[in-house]
Amino acid sequence: QVFHSRDLPTYVLSPRPLSAAAMLAADKLLLTSTIRKNATELKGKELELHKTNFDAVGTQAAVLAGFAVTALVEFHVPENANQFLTGCYYVCTIITLVANLRCVSMTTCITVMGTGLALRGPDGSVVQAVEGMYEQRYTVFLSFGVGIAASLLTACFICCILMDIVPAILCCGLLVWAMVSTARFTRQYYRLFHFNEAHTVSFDDILGSSSTNNEALLRLLGSGVSSDQIVSLMRSVLPSQLGRPSVDRHSDEHMV
Fold it and tell me: In which band, very low, low, confident or very high, does the pLDDT at 201 lie, cut at 50, 70 and 90?
């Protein structure tokens, strides 16, 4: 079958099939897509960072919860022990167990649901997942801190129940020093690594709705440009991804 150049579309034969404005709009579309891709990769790294942090906290909380169960089941209170100290011991043990199990539950739900939203959700889900995980840090760390403090208090009451007064005072003093020291360096580290949230880099304007951004960019091409011309233009901009045009515009006729 033989066909001539008159059978080809007009935009293929034209030496300048698209205007300079259309080419500029296509370049803008390509640049925006590249920026969106890089911003999504950065958000993905931040998502992985939050997931790793929550996994580490959840693992430590699970260990402390195991210690609380052991202290609750295996420890036998002497019959002549002070009832007030015994009651405080059981209360602190339960607080340790509850706080650490709550921390484990929260970290598990946050990591599972957050990563699921980021990978399988609609446009903008990565930003939503990262911001949601970031906002839950304070609640998780607070529960973990309460579990640590309750664990130290449990150890204090065990010392008071089992030991004589002198060694009990020495051990309780060491445990109180440990609590105060932990609170002090936690506050010091918070001040050292604290930053103003208003100065953080945000990708919300880049990682917004892709359909809205694409429609806005395609409107820049003008209403007079057909879909076939857009495909031809994108092939000229991205030849490696879309392939070369199927028809050579510089030839007058072809044999098939």
Answer: low
Q: pTM of the prediction?
A: 0.65
Q: pLDDT band at residue 126, thresholds of 50, 70 and 90? A: confident
- CA–CA separation, 143 and 219 (whole Å): 51
Q: Rounded distance, CA 77 to CA 49, Å?
A: 44
Cβ within 8 Å of residue 141, ≥6 positions away? 57
Please give the backbone phi and psi of residue 4, each rounded to the nearest 5 degrees, phi first: -105, 175
- Return the H-helix or E-strand segment holding 180: helix 165-193
Q: Which residues contact 217 (CB under 8 A, 6 or more apart)?
A: 25, 28, 29, 32
Confidence (pLDDT) at 119: 84
Residue with tokens 């994108």: 234
| Burial bucket for residue 152 (CB in 10 Å: 0-12, 13-18, 19+) | middle
> Which tokens hold the place of 77?
């209170």
How many Cβ atoms sit within 10 Å of the Cβ of residue 217?
17
Paired with 255 in beta bridges are 2
With beta carbons less than 8 A apart as the criterion, state whether 37 and 117 touch. Answer: no
Question: 163: how many CB neighbours lie within 10 A of its CB?
Answer: 14
Which phi and psi angles does 181 have, rounded to 5°?
A: -65, -40
Rounded to whole angstroms, the Cα distance separating 222 from 220 reads 5
Tally Cβ neighbours within 10 Å of residue 66.
12
CB-based contact 68:151 (threshold 8 Å): yes
Q: Please list the residues that pair with 254 across neighbouring strands.
A: 3
